[in-house]
Amino acid sequence: MTITFSAPAVPPEDARHHESAAEGNIEAAQRAISALLSALEGTADYDRILLRAAAGAGKSYALVRMVREALAHENCARVGVTAFANKQVFPLAGELGRELGAARVCLFVAKDRLPEVPQDVLDQVSVATSAGGVPDTCDVVLGTSHKMGAWGEPQRLLDRLGPGVNATLPFDVLFVDEAWQLPLHRYATVQGLAPLSVGVGDVGQLPPIDPGQNPWRGDPGYNPYRAWPTAYENDEKTFAVDLPAVWRPTAAQLPLWRAFYGDWDRLDCVAAPGDRTVEPPAMTGPAAAVWESVATGTPTLLEVEGLPDPEAPDIDPDLLGVVEEVLMPLLEGGFAITRRRYDGVGRPLNEERITSGAPSGDPLIVVLATRNQAVDDATAMVERLTDKYGLPEGVLLASTVDSWQGQTNAITVAVHPLSGADRLDEFNSAFGRLAVTCTRATHGLLMVARAGLDDLLGEAPARPGTPLGEPGNRSLPRQTHQRILTTFSRATLRLGGRGSGGRRSPCR
Fold this sequence. Notes:
The protein has helices at about 20-40, 60-70, 85-100, 120, 145-150, 155-160, 185-190, 255-260, 285-295, 315-335, 370-390, 430-440, 455-460, 475-485, and strands spanning about 1-5, 50-55, 80-85, 105-110, 125-130, 140-145, 175, 195-200, 240, 245, 270, 275-280, 300-305, 335-340, 350-355, 365-370, 395-400, 410-415, 440-450, 490-495. It starts with a strand and ends in a 14-residue tail after the last strand. It folds into two domains: about 1-10 and about 275-495, Rossmann fold (3-Layer(aba) Sandwich); about 20-210 and about 220-245, 3-Layer(aba) Sandwich (Rossmann fold), CATH 3.40.50. The strands form four sheets. An eight-stranded parallel β-sheet has the order 5-4-6-3-7-8-2-9. The chain contains 14 helices and 20 strands. It is an alpha/beta fold.
């Protein structure tokens, strides 16, 4: 049993960090605000404004700023804010409530979802479960597209609130958070709430519904399950701008981020080298080498040779067994992360240290898998390890990639979507699925796969066109995967001594 590493891509020499990087986002957001104000003024004929972002670009901060600027304009009396899921709406409501005050911000939520609203959000907002309960003082109303776009709800909101300055519709501007996760058919239900829509979001998000379920298959040019902004990005009444900096990743992850958003003019990282660290315990063997690589902040891919054939790509307990064995010495010895804090313009402040014995904030380690069966097995593994080491809540959990959209964690341990596959298909080669997998971590990324990814990508037949869910103009799926893999520090673990009589640990 041996482990060997190959070097990742060389870090870019032109990268900007701290306030130099954040400055680009401030300027891009200002361009979007100027377009918004011009549309409200009537000097620009825009129906939509799109603020496109990479994962972890601080888009919610920009959205709050745009809401504030819109409400300050004389031609905007009231705004609506929507998103696909309550887990996106709730924290945004809290942010807007803290910014504007509870009397001005109403969280419009289904009655049966009210118990799910965190108390710290309830403390910052007014709450209504029906249109009739929206307070007169509120000029910001937030709710999911399912709530605000329910049958008859736009008319009930208009009856309760009256028209905005536009004299026809209840809101003067509709803001859509995580816009690239909202499918076109859901946007259609809320589009008529305001004459102007502002979409803010990560272009790498996955639409929430499988495009294979399209009931309009007879018309290949129409797919209601695509993210709604993709239908308008080239429309002459749409203004679009990119946020050119990300706040989430380590500096060492920037080549990976740039591989996903390679057609952007530039992409920088607020975190500078050394701003975030992982402190693993003393270890020996292959696990030590793996965590030493992850601790540098560089994305790490561990490919495993010598495993029995899996039952299916999403039923692979042997590969998850390796993941478990890699995690065991890290959890047994305990680890810590450190992170530099920044002010609103990217200037570095104090450093914070969090240990696995007393976790706080985002989860420390999240195990991600792409299919439900795999995440069921990963959840069972997490439960075993949690019990074995008495881990506090927040140290280790498991999730599907799709469910973890919009979430953040310190270290991601993920099964590569192509692991064990014999071909590329619409599911396992989706740009968005891999992008979400790779962009949740603030400190370290460990991707795990069966050996053979290079052979799979080298032999896969070319597939013309851009697959559904892949934003913008991208290269063919196999080339996209190959480009992304070059940014990883790649390790190959060659197993030996495994047979039907049992399995010995390869990592300790």
